[in-house]
Design goal:
This protein is of the alpha+beta class and 386 residues long. The chain is built from twelve helices and 18 strands.
């Protein structure tokens, strides 16, 4: 595979313009931690690792400006030095594919809209993206958004970039809203609940005034010996303690509630964030549904041999299951959700689209948006089979 490695915006514009003129295609890549998502590609690689480094950080204003190829670990270390963090809990996909952690970049996190358990209470990656600099498929450098939360200068282009998987433009700079790290954290747990009971218990907790920051359920398949339903509470210590004291009463009809030790809880939340409870190497699906539909999805797929756990109070289900790709997607659709194929053997990735097929109306809308940014289809690779 041919590789281009521009290090400046003019060089990037030149590379994109040349590809457009030749009818070529470019695959944008930073650290490559998610390169094995999607079908096999043979397009020219647009290596953006030259766009790395911190541009500006203002801890008092909770704003960070950074180039996209900056390692996620570098961003997290910098924020931790000021007792701050990325509130949406992004994570590194590398280990999902058997690679060492550390390759994930902040640009890749935004392009794939990566978020962990805190997505439930603190919003998605797009909610924390204030502004961007980028180069479109027209080979034109542009700026969108700004450095403040309330920036009303036109269409919210930065939100389009979050989750676009590099199919609209090549990012050259990102401005993110950051937040303070939680002063205190506690995890309350219920044992032995079935899927329906766990979803109901999490819904009860989320509908209360206890300000649950994360809620997840591990099935007995992935947490041997006991199903475990987890509720995380964060904030100032006195507030956390007061809210924890109310959880047993709130959930008494679901069974006895225990408080987990901090090391065990931290390990469980880390595993949940990184989909680690499921077997390594096999097919891996990420299913997003309305929480009310989670039980139906699990009841349909579990008899087929699916191993699973859920996050986001049931709105996110991670499933490991050989075969049944059509059934998985039909099941997700039936409850108003969608399923993404995250990991699979190459033959399956080359025949089953990674992203859930859209309805004709949504497909047409997405195509119009992509053509507005990239009329020559420079960033349209074979990755997503569309």
């Amino acid at each position: 595979m041919r590789t281009l490695a521009p290090a400046t915006t003019p060089e990037l514009c030149e590379a994109i313009a040349a590809a457009a003129a030749a009818g070529g295609h470019l695959e944008i890549r930073g650290g490559g931690s998610k390169a094995e998502i999607g079908a096999q590609r043979h397009e020219t690689l647009l290596d953006l690792r030259g766009f790395s480094g911190i541009v500006d950080y203002d801890p008092a204003e909770l704003v960070l400006t950074v180039r996209p190829a900056t390692a996620l670990t570098e961003v997290e270390r910098l924020l931790a030095s000021e007792d701050q963090a990325l509130a949406f809990e992004p994570w590194d996909h590398g280990p999902l594919f058997g690679h060492p952690a550390g390759a994930a970049t902040i640009g890749g996190v935004i392009a794939a809209a990566v978020a962990g358990p805190a997505r439930l209470s603190r919003g998605a990656a797009r909610d924390h993206l204030l502004g961007i600099k980028a180069v479109s498929g027209r080979a034109e450098a542009f700026v969108a958004g700004g450095r403040v939360v309330k920036n009303v200068t036109g269409y919210d282009v930065p939100k389009l970039m979050a989750g676009s998987w590099g199919r609209l433009a090549a990012l050259t700079e990102l401005t993110l809203k950051v937040g303070p790290r939680a002063h205190s954290s506690a995890t309350m747990a219920l044992e032995g609940l079935g899927a329906s009971e766990a979803i109901a218990a999490m819904a009860r907790a989320m509908g209360s005034a206890l300000e649950i920051s994360a809620a997840a359920h591990l099935s007995p398949q992935v947490h041997p010996g006991r199903a475990l339903t987890l509720l995380r509470l964060q904030g100032f210590e006195r507030s956390v303690e007061a809210r924890c004291a109310q959880v047993p009463t709130l959930l008494r009809e679901f069974g006895s509630v225990q408080r987990l030790g901090e090391p065990e809880a931290d390990g469980l939340w880390r595993a949940i964030r990184e989909a680690a409870p499921l077997p390594s190497g096999g097919p891996l699906w990420r299913i997003q549904v309305p929480p009310s539909g989670a039980s139906a999805v699990i009841q349909t797929l579990e008899p087929l041999g699916a191993q699973w756990f859920c996050d986001w109070a049931g709105a996110l289900i991670w499933i490991s299951l050989e075969g049944h790709a059509v059934r998985i997607r039909e099941t997700a659709e039936a409850v108003g959700g969608h399923a993404m194929l995250v990991r699979a053997a190459r033959d399956l990735r080359n025949t089953v689209p990674a992203l859930h097929p859209r309805t004709p109306a949504v497909t047409a809308l997405e195509a119009r948006i992509r053509r507005a940014f990239d009329p020559a289809g420079v960033f349209e690779t074979a990755r997503f089979l569309d």
